[in-house]
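Assemble and predict.
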Amino acid sequence: MSIDIVQFALLLALMAGLVVVAGRWLTRVLTAQNHWLPERLGYRLLGVDPAAPMDWKRYGIALVLSNAAMMLLGYVILRLQGWLPFDALQRPAQTPDLAFNTAASFITNTNWQSYSGESSLSNLSQMAVITFLMTVSAASGIAGCAAFIRGLAQREARDVGNYWADFTRIIWRLLLPACLVLSLVYVWQGIPQTLASSTDATTLEGATQHIVVGPVASLEAIKHIGTNGGGFYGVNAAHPFEDPTPLTNLLHMLAMFLVPSALTYAFGRMLSRRRQGWAFLAAFVVMFVGFLSVEYPAERHGNPMFTSLSVDQTPGATQPGGNMEGKEMRFGIAQTSAFVAVTTAATTGSVNAMHDSLTPVGGMVPLFLMMLNDVFGGVGVGFINLVSFAILTVFLVGMMIGRTPEFLGKKIEAREMKLVMLAVLAHPFCILGFTALAAVWPGASASFANAGPHGFSELIYAYTSGTANNGSAFAGLNANTPFYNTTIGLAMLMGRYFTLLPMLAVAGSLATKRSAPESLGTLPTATPLFTCLLIFVIVVVGGLTFLPALALGPIVEQLAMTASQFF
Amino acid sequence: MSLSLVRPVLVSAVLFMAITGLAYPLAATGLATALFPRQSSGSLLRHGDTVIGSSMIGQDFRTPHYFHPRPSMTGDLPYNAAASGASNLGPTSAKLRDAVRERAEAFRKENHLAADAPVPVDAVTASGSGLDPDISLANAHAQSARVATARHLAVDKVDALIDQQALGRQWGVLGEPRINVLALNLALDSASIRTLP
């Protein structure tokens, strides 16, 4: 057990070290004045002036429209896959509802997959659709966050930056170099990177094994750095080719935390409020450690059913023990629990074990992390979500102690609060609304793989994952039906743009305001007290919203498990 | 206002598809093939010209003189490396309970264990990928008597081979101690076992 704690400590220590390095790098990317040669060529092709200022509306329109064009391009390639060259396995095109779902999923940084990678996508699609959309959705998220931060920093101005310049620089200066280096480390550890599609092996017992390979490492790198999460293979990072060693598992986790944590540092630098950046990072870390300390014991303790069948699940020197259904030996309990918490905190959605087979409490942790959606959060949007809760906290506390709500030297007024509430409420509305719809939709329950409360957990997990732009699944649910493909596709689009756009509007609105001097009446927001209040508000709002739904799924299942009731 | 966006919107989609969807993965492929030719093509193992598997991917073993891997739920047959998959059964699933009970009984029977002997949990639970190359040391030692009998070897020789082939935690800290089943079985087939103490 102590070695498990050491592994957790190592993860957090390395993450903390990377915050400063990546944070400085990110700040330089977002505040650069010069243009690299390939960037200048790109601006010329696009016909844009990278120095032209944009207000939040124009920035937001450029972001949404360019996302739409990229989603359409991805959709077209997926529909044409059967006619495109370079696929020895001749995998056919995706159906219209599936291709819509896939394109929506990857442009919104969700990476929900209704298909299984190795049987559904050619190497060309894995590169020209999946790797492409993973990179640009991450770049759009970071760009959106950059505009948001600039809006908070502005005084009596409308300029929040230039979308094309942000987007281009994030790709050339941050994502591509980091991904190229990381993908080579991945190959060194055993992740394939080839244009071949498969190899036939003759096993020691004489059977034939078709081993599917492809450009996996380049996809894995952006998948984690961009908090995307869609796997090359059906079982995602549980596949030995996606996550071959404990070291790659650690690197996956560090890569997922890299940008979300670095953004708190970049925020602190860009606003010259470093303490505020650290206060936000502290909120992330405290919540993450709290959730991990629920996840790990639940999985380590395992399933009482095993013991009743005289199956030994006691952790020891010769076995990791615990609930090993759906888990891989090389990760055991510690690296799996950490990954479960990281991937749903950073809303990546990559999985190194099957979440459907986690214990009830062990499965509730990732579900709740996605419901909160702001413990680290996806690249860019996670930070924006945290700030929306920070504004909500300032407002609530202001109400309680009779002070005018102020945040970062700006007065928070009715317009901002309305927009913040829109962003905060769109999330549960979308999750609970679609779950309720699916619960009564004729035939929708035929997709459940598990009976009893676990079937309901599969359902709510799907819409939570879609709305939170996570992408992980209780994968037993057969979501490749027109109903699920369409509704989950809509949930992903709503979850992305109905939180991103209102918060960009908040930033745009705050940008035009005068900076109010801090007075005795100002609530300081860079203190441990405020961090505690912020966590409290996040957990209470999230808890009150989702507790009734959780009671129908994981909570009742936990009670059933301890009572040895099976479904 | 929006008309002026038409060109950058359309051009950026195609341009960045070419950069991030083609140039980046192709550059990574070129570098990876040059620097790590073995790993980049899937860490394949060969006997002469025949590919016999990948050191990363588990294989199905059923005969008594080989060590057996974990249960696999891939596609239509176990250890199908073209259709990774898991059971996705939840902790209160009756199907899971029945499967675990059956596997535990089968494991005890083939290894000549007592009817209530404890079975290592990884031997009766399906892995996440269905292609898990590893088993726990406890699982390997529980099978060593059977393998030794089938090969007419002393049990302590087989146990010594397990200890020799065991993988520790990476860098002493990361992951779990384990043993690669394919590597262990290849070592069994090679002559090396006869020279072990």
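Strands of chain B lie at 44-47, 50-54, 119-120, 134-135, 179-180.
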